[in-house]
Amino acid sequence: PPISPPEPPRPPAPPPIPPSLPTIRYTFELRPESFFTGPTQPNGYTYGNPPYGWHWQQSGGTPNQDTGVVSGPKGDGSYYYTESHGRVEGDIYELRYDGSACAGGVVGVISFYYAMYGHGMGSLHVVAADGTVVWGAERDHGPGWHRSSATLNSASFLFRAVRGHGDASDI
Question: Nearest CA to 170 among 98, 63, 73?
């Protein structure tokens, strides 16, 4: 009987699909202690050395009627904001998240609301733990809240706001 040629080698099996990281819905209200910022006064004004703090607003609007919001992103609720009054152009504000609530110590994707309304508005950036800017916005974006997202894949991140040239530049 004829001899059959040997079968060619089979390609290796593909690697197993890694498990996906769980999605965690996380809001400032659940664990505000996981966010770190510099000191602020009850009226939102900052003090100390830069980077300056973001103020935690439990409800209602900001003190500056000309630039700030009148409520949280969905018409109520709490939020952080930067108070531009009493600061100068180029001052930096940072709000840091330590990553403590994220599985595997990795923050994958964040979604957030931001408000940037007023003459002389500065800039807002999301910065990964390694210093990479993964999202940014500049100038006046009109009244109200705007929704956005950023992909991080980082152990932690921060929101960095830079004050614009006018008092009407709360973020």
Answer: 63
Is residue 165 classed as helix, strand or coil in its secondary structure? coil
* Residue 17 predicted with pLDDT over 50: no
Residue position matching structure tokens 């593909």: 14
Q: E strand or H helix at 111, and its extent?
A: strand 107-114
> Which amino acid is present at 36?
F
Q: How far apart are CA 66 and CA 85, in angstroms?
A: 11
The answer to whether the pTM exceeds 0.90 is no
Q: Which two tokens stand for residue 110?
A: 């964040």
Tell whether the model's pLDDT for residue 115 goes beyond 80.
yes
State which amino acid sits at residue 105.
Answer: G
pLDDT per residue over 98-109, tens digit each? 877 776 778 888
Residues 111, 152 contacting (CB under 8 angstroms): no
| Tokens 């100068």 belong to residue | 88
Helix (H, G, I), strand (E, B) or coil at 34: helix
pLDDT score of 30 more than 80 = no
| Nearest-angstrom CA–CA distance, 90 and 163 | 5
Contacts of 36 (CB under 8 A, 6+ apart): 95, 96, 97, 98
User: Contact 28/79 with Cβ under 8 angstroms?
Assistant: yes
Q: Give me the mean pLDDT over the 116-136 stretch.
A: 92
